């Protein structure tokens, strides 16, 4: 595996070096003619073939399938390596491999747990946790930001300058790799029936698009799809302010002017330029490498627009220099209007004022009389958060717990994994549809019909319907290729049928409350509904230091080191709101916690604390706190909310609300977990099927009797 990694790097390096060498050896000069162009193209092709074979042998030896390429891109080899090194009792090497893999796969819970174990092993030091695939320009930039935040501006300047050199080198390498064979969806150049120039134009446009996108590639962290905002311009922003601190105003002016190449006319940076000019008594010039870089970028854009129009392909220019990303320090203030971070001119740095926060859109009616508002976003020290009590009654909690004990299956909802988040707890779950399928109020003397259909890109689904006629009409929008099969359907069970219907009704009650409280202007749809219980495994609770559910966000990939949440797959990016409706509180641990983006600092309002570290007696919700002495007054480090029957936590699903669950150390914790979406295209398919089951059963008077043979005990 180590040899495969070395070979992969050597192939990449050889392709880059040969491309750049042959480009220098066979340039396009001023003497251009119809024959000169193909002459240079053919000589470059011959040069690159010879160069590659000289360095690494015949190219066919290094051709691999797309699946292998993707595995290396996702750093899969390092997963194998950490296991192998662990069995060889080389924990330092295993730690490095695990860390490298985890950087590109932060959602991999097991690897995160492995890393925590490696930290406690003898012989493993902090320096062993290195990213073996770290990109030099990103590593230098991150280190420079660290020094900047520590106030070491001289050290930061050196690293920022180094990061810029590495960035432009990486850009050349990225563009060189675009010259190699590409996979263009929907194109087979060997079967083209177009003219020479049309073929060249089409292929060149695709290659040019690849080169143009190097801006995005170089700003994207491993394992991510979304780039860091404003990545390259940030270098010059940090540099101008660092140079200012070092009283090197010539360099500060140059970097400020360079930044304005990317964001022409930005008011605050323009103010900085005026300040530097006034102090120096003369003007300056932006850096030439950045000016040339942007000239090329604009020229590429013009060619891409021409090429896409000629070939009839749609092209949209990306927002490469987004101004939403910038320095995060005390010299920046939130605008309070659109979430962007605005620069403060140097002349105003001594009078920084934090603007008022944007008004939260919440506080709508709770729909049901018994529901009580306990804490809003302000009380929970966050945004788009709410805590409610008495959403359901004690009796309803008991019914739903009995339902859970009867129908939940280990690993349901977690791809069959009984312990998906921690080896110390067992997870069991069931969906609304499953409870309705399993629970029928009838000792049936007649056959039910089961429709087995294949939904687009899905496994076969089965559901109860009354007749095949139901398929035509309501089901027609969702199903195709369906076959009706008549089967005898009947069970003898343990739980009243009303509990299955209660699960359906309670989830709808929760949806209506969340939709109303957060004053949503459009319908909130179910994205996924899950009745889930987690149980502490006896004998595995001593000295636990893990979480029942690690800190995460519901619609983005939390990246604590970058203080970002990347809204991209495999995250459920379409989820907009989440809710947890608790069914009991008779267990130990299992508290729900909100955290900051760093996945460590638990959010809590200062009003809930006394200066001497004693929790206020008036606190509700059985909230517990932990304090630490940090340079003077006590400050809160941790807050947690104990689940109780009928209590519900609701919140928006994005990176503004990272959350997790503390370890359940004794007993069983049950809840109804709900995720919602505002996009009807991502409605929960099983919920739509459950709606049809309820409608069909109601139509046939299944709930009330209607002459059918009802079990006298109303049990299965």
Automatic annotation (TrEMBL):
UniProt similarity note: Belongs to the leprecan family.
Native source organism of the sequence: Gasterosteus aculeatus aculeatus
Name this polypeptide is given: procollagen-proline 3-dioxygenase
InterPro entries: Leprecan_dom (IPR056585), Oxoglu/Fe-dep_dioxygenase_dom (IPR005123), P3H (IPR039575), Pro_4_hyd_alph (IPR006620), Pro_4_hyd_alph_FE2OG_OXY (IPR044862), TPR-like_helical_dom_sf (IPR011990)
EC number annotated for this UniProt entry: 1.14.11.7
Cofactor: Fe cation; L-ascorbate
One annotated Gene Ontology cellular component of this protein: endoplasmic reticulum
Residue ranges occupied by any Fe2OG dioxygenase domain in the UniProt entry: 529-678
Pfam family name, one: TPR_leprecan
A Gene Ontology biological process term: collagen metabolic process
First-level EC class: oxidoreductase
């Amino acid at each position: 595996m180590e040899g495969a990694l070395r070979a992969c790097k050597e192939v990449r390096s050889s392709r880059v070096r040969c491309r750049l060498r042959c480009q220098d050896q066979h340039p396009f000069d001023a003497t251009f003619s119809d024959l000169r162009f193909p002459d240079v193209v053919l000589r470059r092709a011959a040069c690159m073939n010879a160069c590659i074979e000289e360095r690494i042998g015949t190219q066919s030896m290094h051709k691999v399938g797309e699946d292998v390429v993707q595995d290396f891109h996702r750093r899969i080899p390092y997963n194998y390596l950490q296991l192998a090194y662990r069995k060889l009792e080389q924990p330092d090497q295993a730690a490095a491999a695990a860390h490298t893999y985890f950087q590109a796969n932060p959602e991999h819970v097991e690897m995160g747990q492995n890393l925590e174990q490696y930290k406690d092993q003898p012989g493993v030091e902090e320096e062993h946790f290195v990213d073996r695939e770290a990109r030099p320009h990103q590593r230098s930039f991150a280190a420079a930001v660290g020094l900047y935040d520590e106030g070491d501006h001289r050290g930061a300047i050196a690293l920022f300058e180094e990061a810029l050199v590495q960035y432009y080198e990486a850009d050349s390498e990225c563009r060189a790799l675009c010259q190699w064979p590409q996979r263009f969806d929907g194109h087979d150049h060997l079967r083209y029936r177009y003219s020479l120039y049309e073929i060249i134009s089409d292929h060149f446009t695709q290659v040019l698009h690849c080169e143009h996108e190097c801006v995005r590639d170089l700003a994207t962290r491993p394992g991510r799809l979304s780039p860091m905002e404003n990545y390259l311009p940030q270098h010059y922003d940090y540099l101008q302010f660092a140079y200012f601190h070092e009283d090197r105003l010539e360099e500060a002016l140059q970097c400020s002017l360079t930044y304005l190449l990317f964001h022409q006319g930005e008011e605050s940076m323009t103010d900085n330029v005026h300040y530097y000019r006034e102090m120096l008594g003369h003007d300056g010039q932006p850096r030439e490498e950045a000016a040339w870089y942007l000239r090329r970028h604009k020229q590429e854009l013009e060619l891409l627009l021409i090429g896409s129009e000629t070939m009839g392909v749609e092209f949209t220019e990306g927002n490469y220099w987004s101004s939403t990303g910038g320095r995060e320090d005390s010299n920046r203030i939130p605008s309070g209007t659109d979430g962007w971070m605005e620069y403060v001119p140097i002349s105003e740095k001594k009078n920084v004022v934090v603007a008022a926060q944007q008004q939260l859109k919440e506080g709508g009616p709770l729909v049901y009389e018994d529901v009580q508002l306990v804490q809003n976003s302000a009380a929970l020290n966050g945004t788009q958060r709410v805590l409610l009590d008495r959403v359901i009654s004690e009796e309803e909690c008991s019914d739903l717990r009995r339902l859970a004990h009867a129908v939940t299956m280990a690993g349901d909802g977690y791809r069959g994994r009984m312990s998906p988040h921690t080896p110390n707890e067992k997870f069991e779950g069931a969906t609304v549809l499953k409870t309705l399928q399993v629970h029928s109020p009838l000792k049936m003397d007649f056959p039910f019909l089961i429709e087995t259909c294949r939904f687009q890109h899905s496994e076969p689904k089965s559901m109860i319907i009354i007749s095949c006629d139901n398929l035509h009409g309501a089901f027609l929008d969702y199903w195709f290729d369906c076959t009706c099969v008549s089967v005898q359907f009947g069970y003898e069970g343990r739980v009243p049928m009303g509990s299955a219907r209660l699960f359906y009704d309670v989830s709808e009650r929760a949806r209506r409350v969340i939709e109303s409280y957060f004053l949503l202007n459009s319908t909130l749809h179910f994205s996924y509904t899950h009745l889930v219980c987690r149980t502490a495994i006896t004998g595995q609770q001593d000295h636990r230091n893990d979480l029942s559910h690690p800190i995460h966000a519901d619609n983005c990939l939390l990246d604590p080191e970058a203080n970002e949440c990347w809204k991209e797959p495999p995250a459920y990016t379409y989820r907009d709101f989440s809710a947890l409706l608790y069914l009991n509180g008779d267990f130990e641990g299992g508290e729900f916690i909100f955290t900051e983006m760093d996945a460590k600092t638990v959010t809590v309002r200062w009003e809930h604390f006394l200066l001497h570290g004693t929790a206020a007696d008036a606190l509700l919700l059985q909230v517990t706190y932990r304090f630490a002495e940090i340079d003077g007054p006590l400050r809160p480090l941790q807050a947690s909310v104990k689940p109780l029957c009928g209590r519900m936590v609701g919140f928006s699903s994005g990176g503004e609300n990272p959350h997790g669950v503390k370890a359940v150390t004794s007993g069983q914790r049950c809840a109804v977990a709900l995720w919602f979406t505002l996009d009807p295209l991502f409605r929960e398919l099983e919920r739509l099927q459950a709606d049809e089951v309820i409608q069909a059963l109601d139509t046939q008077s299944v709930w009330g009797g209607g002459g059918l043979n009802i079990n006298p005990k109303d049990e299965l």
